[in-house]
Every structure is written in C-alpha cells, then in structure tokens.
Specification:
Serine Threonine Protein Phosphatase 5, Tetratricopeptide repeat; globular; 3 domains
C-alpha cells in the first residue's frame, strides 16, 4: 500500500507551532523512505499534541501498520474515523489491517464503507473480494471479482478470484447433490465431469455411461462422450454421439430441485472455465502459474506442477504458501532428494505441523533411511493421531525395521486407505511373522479379493464404441 496516498499534510493543523510543523514534515520523509518505526515515534508526539486531528491519527496508524504492527494500528484508524467518518484512507487501512491479521469477517464492514465512499476503488474491491472468498461467501465474492475484472480486465487476480469463486459455487452445488441424490444420474454425470478435468477419460467414460443408464434423455452427456471420443482419437464414434445429442427431446419445462442443482453446478463450472480462460490469455503471472500447477496436480502430472510452482516462486520469492505447495509437489513427484531439504525448511517454520512430519518421514522411508523415518512418523501421529497416511507409512517402516509386532496396529489403522491391496499384504506378512496364522490367512484372502476387484474394474472401464 503506497504511503504517499494516505499521508495527510498536517502543516495547516499545526501552523501555530513551527516545531510541530517540522515534525510533521519529518514524519512524511521517514514514511517515504520506509523508516516506519521512526515515523510512528514522531507521529505519536504529534498526536499527543493534537489528539483530535484525524489526519495525524491516520498517519500514526499507517506508520504502525507498515512497521509490522497492524494490531496496534487498528485503534488509531478507529479513533480517526470517529472524528471523520468519511475518511476513506482510514476505512481502507482498517480493512487492510484486519486482513493482514487474518480477520476477514472484521474486514468486510470497513471495506464496504470504503467502496460506498469511492465505488470504483480497485484496492478496496479486491480486498473485499478476497475477504468474502475466504469466508466462503462465494456469490458475493464473485460479484466483487466481477466488478474488478470490468475495472481492470488485465488484472490476473480478478480473473483468478472470479474463477475460484465460481468453482466453489459449483462444488457447493455438487455437495448438495451428493447429499440428497447420491448415485443419481446427476451425481454420476458431475463425477464424470471431474474425471475429465483430471484427464481420467476411461473413468469419466464409465460414469457418463452409468448416468445415461439412469437418465437416457439427460442433455449434455452424449456431447461429453463425444468429446472423450475425440480426445482418444475416435472421431467416427464422436460423430455418432453428437447425433444422439441432437436427437434428444427438448428439456422439460419443470425441473426437480436435484436437477436444478445439477444445471446450476454445470453453469458455474462453465463460468469458472471462462474466467480461467481469460486468465490464460494474459501475460504469465503468479495467478496463472498457480492455476496451471493445480491443473497438473489434479491430473497427477506432478513434475509439471513443480515447474509451475517454481515459476510462481520466482514471481513471489519467499511466499510461504508457494514454498509449501512446491515441497508437496516434489514429494508427490517422488523427487525425494529434492523434497527432503524443502520439507525440512518448512518444518522449521511449522514445527508442530503433522502433515510435514509425515511428508518428511515418508520421504526418508523412500530413501531407505528407516530409523529416521520412524522418528518423524511417530511425531506426526503425536500431533495428529488420526492421520491415516502416517499410520500406513509408519507401519511399513516398522515392518521394514523388523518390528512387525509394532507395525500391526498401524497397518490395521490405515486399511481404509488401501486401494491396491498393498497394506493388506504387508499386514498379512506381519501376522505370519508374529505367529498369528489365522489372521494372516484372513488378511491375505482380503488382499486377493482386492486384486480380483481391481482386475474386474479394469475390464469394466474400457472406452468402447457407442
């Protein structure tokens, strides 16, 4: 926030005193050169001399805020606003301080007041939109980001925020369908849509076909299947599906609530796509790299995600959230040698974060540093006993260290995560080695059943002709 916009000239208010006027000028000079603590000291003296001057109170608050003391600055802004309720910079600064302190709910009112005073103030609109988005007030956030995109169509933050707001609205509609109509055609179709976004065309094909079995006249499904056929080099099959889409009867005029939610979700997803497409048309930005990294991660293209997080970090050096995303992507990309130091750096900043202890522990396990891995994984479970991935990894580490009796409870705790049967297999071996033969047999049978189900599912989700 540019101090030059907000520093009021106090000279006319202190004209009766050359000394106060000199101090006022000195305060402005210190603010302009970034020496905020020294400026705050001078403005404190001026406020003591002239306690009812709103401009000086604002300047003191700005000096404290920019000096890294937003909490201390807040009562200065509030005092200035009691004296002058139309003091726009004070409303802006009050909202900014609340946002800096992680208090978006308290930032909304002052930012709304600032916008009422100056409807096209982009800074106020952007902060208000960010506050509303963090509060999950997605409809209002979309309105504010929409205003911002109109005021400055080249602002990547506007399009990114707008896309995220619409995506969140689509997600909320999907959650309602999942709660009120699980396994319905609408739920199946939306699950298929999500698989397409992740590049999982065979899985999407399976769910679209399931949706059609339940609702043969549901518009958009044949068109979606046609797109999958095009993506998988079956143009002739795509043409047949497009023809089926054209032959569908017009949609019914009346819709059920569930159907309304479905089309609402589809509509919001389309709006999100439009916003992100506008973002992609702009020059490379922090927001664009974040978007691309998320897309790559959703498609399990973790090495590509790493490239975009690194590019984002160049645009925002030292950003803790981006450093976290980069370290996580390195881990997911199985670049364990690069992930280890990145995660260790994060752990120094967040020493009690259970997920970081898990990531480091599992990384060390993959690098065959088993004893060190156990130490970190145990620490992860100390901070979060319900962290199932840490139970799975610790169970495997203890088994590898020959401590199979200790591994058993952790492997058992993590069985809910076992999609490929590997945990059942390791648990069976642990039971066998500790003399629990019957439990070993039962668990091995469960492992074999999972394997059979995997083979059956693999056959079932092949992309086939219309």
């Amino acid at each position: 926030m540019c101090a030059a916009l907000f520093i009021f000239t106090a000279a006319r208010s202190v004209a009766q005193s050359d000394e106060l006027a000199l101090k006022s000028r000195r305060g402005k000079e210190l603010m302009a050169t970034g020496r905020f603590k020294e400026a705050a000291s001078i403005y404190s003296e001026l406020v003591r001399a002239l306690p009812n001057n709103p401009g000086l109170l604002l300047n003191l608050g700005m000096a404290e805020q920019m000096g890294g003391q937003p909490r201390k600055a807040i009562p200065r802004f509030e005092a200035a606003l009691k004296l002058d309720p139309d003091l726009l910079p004070a409303w802006l600064s009050l909202g900014a301080s609340r946002m800096e302190l992680g208090e978006p709910a308290l930032a909304v009112a002052p930012l709304e007041k600032a916008i009422k005073l100056q409807p096209q103030n982009e800074q106020a609109i952007r902060m208000l939109a960010d506050a509303l988005l963090s509060l999950e007030r997605f409809e209002q956030a979309a309105l504010e980001f929409g205003k911002l995109s109109q005021l400055d169509p080249k602002d990547p933050r506007a399009w990114s925020g707008l896309g995220n707001s619409y995506e969140s609205l689509a997600g909320r509609a999907f959650e309602t369908i999942a709660r009120e109509g699980p396994e319905s055609a609408y739920w199946l179709a939306l699950v298929a849509d999500s698989r397409v976004k992740e590049g999982q065309f065979r899985s999407a094909f399976f769910f679209y076909r399931q949706a059609l079995e339940k609702a043969p006249d549901l518009h958009g499904i044949h068109a979606a299947l046609a797109e999958i056929y095009r993506q998988t080099n079956h143009a002739d099959w795509a043409a047949k599906e497009e023809e089926k889409e054209r032959q569908l009867p017009p949609p019914a005029k009346s819709r059920t609530k569930l159907e309304e939610r479905y089309w609402q979700a589809r509509h919001y997803n389309d709006l999100a796509l439009q916003a992100f497409s506008r973002l992609a048309e702009l020059p490379p930005s922090l927001q664009l790299h974040e978007l691309l990294a998320d897309i790559h991660r959703n498609r399990h293209q973790y090495l590509e995600a790493v490239k975009d997080w690194r590019a984002a970090l160049k645009l925002a050096p030292g950003n803790p959230q981006i450093e976290r995303e980069l370290a996580t992507s390195l881990y997911l990309a199985q670049d364990y040698k690069a992930a280890a130091p990145a995660l260790e750096k994060l752990l120094k900043r967040e020493p009690r974060a259970p997920d970081l202890h898990f990531f480091i522990g599992d990384t060390l396990l993959q690098l065959d540093h088993v004893e060190n891995a156990i130490r970190y994984l145990e620490k992860a479970l100390t901070y979060d006993p319900k962290l199932l991935p840490a139970h799975a990894s610790l169970g495997l580490a203890l088994a590898r260290a020959g401590k199979r009796d200790q591994a058993i409870p952790h492997l058992k705790a993590a069985l809910k995560l076992d999609q490929d049967g590997s945990l059942h297999y390791q648990l069976s071996r642990a039971y066998q080695s500790t003399g629990q033969v019957e439990l070993a047999k039962t668990t091995l049978a469960e492992y074999e059943q999972i394997e059979a189900q995997k083979r059956d599912l693999e056959k079932e989700i092949q992309i086939s002709a219309p």
